[in-house]
Amino acid sequence: RTSVIADLAAIRIAGKGLEGYLEAVDRLAREVAAERAPVRGLPTDE
User: Fold this and answer.
1) Is 38 left (phi over 0), alpha (psi -120 to 50) or beta?
2) SS3 44
3) What is the DSSP letter of 46?
4) What's the confidence (pLDDT) of residue 25?
5) Whole-structure pTM over 0.85, yes or no?
């Protein structure tokens, strides 16, 4: 999975310079946060 994410980030960054890199990092952070967000009605680890 890490390789796929890195490949997608590289595609997004290509030709965009620093702005593209920051955009890719921001998008990845949002996707990771969404995956870790608890789903209502499901038990949590707590």
Assistant:
1) beta
2) coil
3) -
4) 81
5) no
